[in-house]
Amino acid sequence: MNVVIANRQRTRRINLRRFRQVTDTLLADLGIRNGELGVYLIGTPEMSQLNETHLQHVGSTDVITFDYSDRRGRCFVNAPTNRATTKPCPPMHGEIFICVDEAVRQARQFQTSWQSEIVRYLTHGVLHLLGHDDSDGRTRQKMKREEDRRLRALSRRFSLAQLASPAKLPGCKNR
């Protein structure tokens, strides 16, 4: 799986190495082994432009997913386990744009951390690329349960607070 992660925002310093580990673990847990995925951490201006240009919605949003695959049907995982279904997932090809400003705002609203919100948005985008749908109440509820379950599993394996890069100290190089 070829994954490109880019930080194009300045709201928060992000430990991209830790974010990649979380991303790789999520994809492995979902049985996604082939394809290409771009994950872009962006600010409000870029997200507003994407939202207005591609979805005709005014203003920013938390996450936008673009699916470029030619898959037919859905690829779901077996809910009680972390193994993929017996049918292997077809290659994934897509992009996920995550608005860090929205993560900070919604973290305050939902009394969680912005790091947890970013991982939630990543999970939400990946689930969309697997065919999950949140366009109506029933499917939205099912997708939200899977999103919550995946976020809890990742939170047990990683300290999501470590997604925040430490501030650079004067005269020191962070590596």
Order of helices and strands: EHEHEEHHH
Read across the widest sheet, the strand sequence of neighbours is 1-2-4-3
CATH topology (level 3) name: Collagenase (Catalytic Domain)
Number of helices: 5
**What is the total domain count?**
1
Largest sheet: 4 strands, mixed
Please state roughly what percent of the residues sit in beta strands, choosing from under 5%, 5-15%, 15-25%, 25-35%, 35-45% or over 45%: 15-25%
CATH class: Alpha Beta
Helix percentage:
40-55%
Radius of gyration based on Cα positions: 16 Å
Q: Rough shape?
A: globular
Spans of 5+ residues with little confidence (pLDDT < 50)? 78-86
The CATH architecture comes to: 3-Layer(aba) Sandwich
Structural class designation: alpha/beta
**pLDDT average, as an integer?**
89
Multimer state: single chain
End-to-end distance, in Å? 26 Å
Number of strands: 4
Describe this structure as you would to a colleague:
It is a single chain. With 175 residues, this protein is an alpha/beta fold. The protein has a single domain (2-163), classed as Collagenase (Catalytic Domain) (3-Layer(aba) Sandwich). Helices cover 42% and strands 15% of the residues. The chain has a 4-stranded mixed β-sheet with strand order 1-2-4-3. Helix 1 (16-29) packs parallel to helix 4 (114-129), helix 3 (100-110) packs across helix 4 and helix 4 crosses helix 5 (137-157). It is globular. The chain starts with a strand and ends in an 18-residue tail after the last helix.
